[in-house]
Amino acid sequence: MQTLQVALGERSYPIYIGQGLLSEGSLLTRHIAGAQVVVITNDTVAPLYLDKVLAAVGERQLVTQIILPDGEEHKNLDQFAKIMDCVLREGHNRSTTFIALGGGVVGDITGFAAACYQRGVEFIQIPTTLLAQVDSSVGGKTAVNHALGKNMIGAFYQPAAVLIDIDTLQTLPDREFAAGLAEVIKYGLISDEPFYHWLQDALPQLLAREEAPLAEAIERSCATKARVVAADEREGGLRAILNLGHTFGHAIETHQGYGKWLHGEAVAAGMLLALRLSVQRGAVDGAAVQQLADLLQQAGLPVSPPPEMSFDDFMALMKRDKKVIDGRLRLVLLEALGRAQVVEDVSEQELRELLSKP
Amino acid sequence: MQTLQVALGERSYPIYIGQGLLSEGSLLTRHIAGAQVVVITNDTVAPLYLDKVLAAVGERQLVTQIILPDGEEHKNLDQFAKIMDCVLREGHNRSTTFIALGGGVVGDITGFAAACYQRGVEFIQIPTTLLAQVDSSVGGKTAVNHALGKNMIGAFYQPAAVLIDIDTLQTLPDREFAAGLAEVIKYGLISDEPFYHWLQDALPQLLAREEAPLAEAIERSCATKARVVAADEREGGLRAILNLGHTFGHAIETHQGYGKWLHGEAVAAGMLLALRLSVQRGAVDGAAVQQLADLLQQAGLPVSPPPEMSFDDFMALMKRDKKVIDGRLRLVLLEALGRAQVVEDVSEQELRELLSKP
């Protein structure tokens, strides 16, 4: 087992990465302070891992399980309200601990619920998808979606601990596994060129879900994210580079309606757009586009946005992005492979050129 | 004008207290960073002060007004969702500033909305009731109610500034003014005995809404609260003393249904219960009970809970209090006039004796 510390002062917390961690009860219980626990999961993950987690939690004064419907389309205020109804009805107090067992949707909505319940209770993340393990479990971003935009209602709220049991990836559907790889590839692109090249070599082993390269990929991804978040917890500056491909990606997800494209799929198409734009601006060599397209395609990810999305669709949706400040679009582009920056001077003309490409 | 600084490190903020502050645009605009503003108020306050605030805000790229229905029964997730719908529809981004213009309900829901919108935007409080000026505008507690408990869904979120224009108290209905006095009296009871005696003398002038004693009472109340909050922002310990009378009070409010008893009225009856219990335990001289009852009565406040509320009603509701930890009731009692403490060893028998009194 590897332990990675996210350094955030008094909000610092450990990420445990390894095999069989769900069966090690003490790992979990050392982070549960009180006698009450709420385990929140979804109807896909519950049959697979809920019993293991409940066994690890053990006998307590009050243990409540909440099983949400699976899917991004349920990450909304309605489900949030249902969680609140349930924990209040059951009588949970301020010393309860919320445990998120599942992918990014479960983690985001559980984290937001933990942030708001009685103005904040402890929470622990047990991410069971590759995407959640390398992305949403690190950094304290919690949120629910709104019909008018993704993650529009949320909070910065750090977990007490994150448990990544690599074994859970063995049950992950291929499509979701690929979506997670998109974010892994992102870390290479934005700040770790050697890792990017390592991924190009190791992809077949990763796709075969071999444990050692999986642990390596997750650890390097989390370490990069932890480093960036530690430097900029509330996204004042540097942290924005984690959003490479996300402004385009969020537009795609919103346009298609939540749940049709997976987040990682939209980010994959978005990253390629960001790289194309970086090439278009002369920052990166053109050969990088084909290399990234190959890597994404090999991983089973899309390399272009939905054909029916027009330039106007993109512009209308991107202007609602959280990174927009006083009407100015801010995009994450590459200065070079392994180095990202936020730029604010992308013109509508450049975007028209980029998005009109076949 | 007096300026009081709430010392919370990088979250420190000023409270301005004085007459005519709403007409001084620069006071407000120095705390608005961006080009977008959302003013949230209610249908009672809007006709009185909204124009003044909009004039002070001035011309901006985007100014949105949201007028909520007046009343504690509207401080809920539904209204919160309506605020989110509106600001998203209007296209507010992360650099927008939320302004709360109104009483505690408007302040609490606006603060919570500001805390959650895009994971946190700036917000400014303009409290227009005495209660909001001395209580909910200081300390960063934001929340909405749930049918199963008050303030159960919320966040700790500090404003960028608080503007207290004493002139707004001239339009406040007597009943609401009295409810605010309950919290003012509380500050005397928990940590400022000289202030408590000053209030006994100054009450007629306060009830006549004379500006000088009003400013004095507000400033001393805010200073006490600011001092307590600065020492314990997230209510780990000391801050709990601010809840004198609130555990009983919340039970009364919940039992009656939100909006029937004003918060300050319930707190008044609750403070007297807390004082009675303190006397019952031998901590305070019995004469204090009659003195406080006189003061509350003179201020136009209730001195006993609703007659139909049984001991069992109280117990059932108080066990849901946020201060309950692992099933143990924690109550704020007085060690002496001007000194409060949190006690955890109050027995059911003691409470039965207290609450069975005629």
Features:
358 residues, alpha/beta, Rossmann fold, Dehydroquinate synthase-like, alpha domain, two-stranded antiparallel ribbon
Overall description:
Two copies of one chain form a homodimer. Chain A is of the alpha/beta class. Chain A folds into two domains: about 170 residues, Rossmann fold; about 180 residues, Dehydroquinate synthase-like, alpha domain (Up-down Bundle). In chain A, about 45% of the residues lie in helices and about 20% in strands. Chain A is built from 13 helices and eleven strands. In chain A, the strands form three sheets. A seven-stranded mixed beta sheet of chain A has the order 1-2-9-6-5-3-4, with helices on both faces. Chain A is globular and about 60 Å long. The model of chain A has no long low-confidence stretch (mean pLDDT about 95). Chains A and B meet through helix 3, strand 7 and strand 8 of A and helix 3, strand 7 and strand 8 of B.
CATH superfamily of the largest domain in chain A: Dehydroquinate synthase-like - alpha domain
> Reading side by side through the largest sheet of chain A, how are the strands ordered?
1-2-9-6-5-3-4
Write down the Rg of chain A. Answer: 20 Å
What string, H for helix and E for strand, traces the elements of chain A in order? EEHEHEHEHEHEEEHHHHHHHEEH
CATH class of the largest domain in chain A: Mainly Alpha
Major sheet description of chain A: 7 strands, mixed
Q: What is the helix content of chain A?
A: 40-55%
* Quaternary organisation of the protein chains: homodimer
Measured by DSSP, the beta-strand proportion of chain A falls in 15-25%
- How many angstroms does the end-to-end distance of chain A come to? 46 Å
Just name the CATH architecture of the largest domain in chain A: Up-down Bundle
- Helices and strands of chain A: which structural class? alpha/beta
Low-pLDDT runs of 5+ residues of chain A are none
Average pLDDT value of chain A? Answer: 93
The largest interface is:
A-B, 41 and 41 residues
What is the count of helical runs of chain A?
Answer: 13
The total count of strands of chain A amounts to 11
CATH-defined fold name of the largest domain in chain A? Dehydroquinate synthase-like, alpha domain
The 3D shape of chain A can be described as globular
